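[Meeting: bench + compute handoff]

Bench side (C.D.) handed over the final construct sequence. Compute side (W.E.) agreed to return the predicted structure before the next meeting so the bench team could plan truncations. Sequence as handed over:
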Amino acid sequence: MSNKLFTCLVMTALCCAFTTGHAQTANPDSALQIILGQIEGKHVSLREAVEHALTNATSVKSAEASFMAARGAARRQAGAFDPELFFNLNHIDQEQPTASFFAGAAVLATTQTTGNAGIRYETPIGTRLELSMNAVRLNTNSTFAFLNPQYTAFGNLSLRQPLLGGFHVSARKQVVKTDQELEAAQARYDQEVLAISSRVEQNYWDLYAAERDYAVQKLTRDRAKSFLQETEVRAQTGLIGPNQVANARTFLAEQEILLLDREEQLDRLSDQIASLIGARPESPARRYLAADTPPAEFPLEEADALVAKAIERNLQLQAAKADIEAQRALSNAAFWEALPRVDVVGSIGGSGLAGSARDVVFGGDTLRSAISGTLNEAIRQSLRRSFPTWSIGVEVNIPIGLRSGFGEKERLEAEVVLAEQRYIQQARVLEEQVRASYRDLYHGSRRLKAAREGVDAAQEQVRIGLIEFQNGRSTAFELVRLGADFAVAQQRYSQAIVRNAKAAAALRQLTSGAYPAQQ
């Protein structure tokens, strides 16, 4: 027996012995482990990958920006009910020619300064209040002015209370809407944090499987090389024909191509991880490699219980529910706004008058005003309501036909129905996804056991095939087929290992963390 064939048989025997002697999650094939250790790249743990993703992922940053925008909109709308201080000051200097004796001057010169200050406030039930103080200082050259300068002041408290449109529900519609939108944005941000962690974990286990697939393919390629050399030796001695050498060459060529495909797949998945977490491996490493292995077991609950948890806890679903309430706030307000507008208006206030008294000569009489005082005196009079004023009234506006208001109401009601249907659709898709992931976990242990048995059987087939080939009872074609079956069995085993881990990660995302953590 040649050294090459002896090496191949020893490797196969070691595979069988190590597989039957350990019951671990990772395939205990020693040759496979050697190849895995020789793959070049930077090992990264799952925790490190998730931390990088939470810091750098664009989807998380976008969700955070949307949340901040919603928070700003909610704050803006809440600020609509904040009191507002106002102040106005105007000065006018005017000269006007006159033709009337009673103007008091041929060219009437007046200087007037007007000030207005107060506070406005709109309450959450739609009441608009305005408290103001107005003051006027007037200087004139008119000989008939009893007060010069003259100070006039008047204070006023005005009220406008809508009774239909603009009242309560209508007044608060934008506040309620933005509050619900903020709640939805918060839920979507939190869900995106969970989602990016789940996506990183799933891609991480795909990378783990790609490493195993590459190692399996390299092992198969190396065995194909040894097998070709053995067939060439046997053909030279006349034990086999040239067709079997051709079969071995064809098999080796196929495995070389498949090895390149597996290496490209490994690099592609490493690039996906790098893009997802926003960090590339440091030079000279050109790819990431998985440092962790998938857990062997995962806790399993009843499917209905998992669905109930998902419906109750899924943050994306809660965001959809908040969207419904945001649309409903506008729809409820639209009913009141479609009705005729009826506002109660009223005011209460007082006036004051003061100034520097002057003698006025009219004909042969000299007249003088009894009023005197400064601006402060005029303001005190208005505050004491020495000269009171008040008013009350009702304003009614009735759009003929009411089509605009009720048309908007119908549109907004349809928007509520659309939001409800989106929620129902999301809930149905969520249940479907939860049940699919549950099935993966439910059959996970059986699938892993079957895949492991498939690897053992494939290894045994290769071992027996080598013996039969050595004894002339099998052809190179049969041995090639057995080698391909072994590679497929190993790949299925890798897929079975990561399928459970990916299903568990999906359940944690779908239930927004309600699914138990890994044990």
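W.E. noted at the follow-up: The chain has two domains: 3-69+178-325+416-510, 88-122+127-165+341-397. C.D. will use this when planning the next construct.
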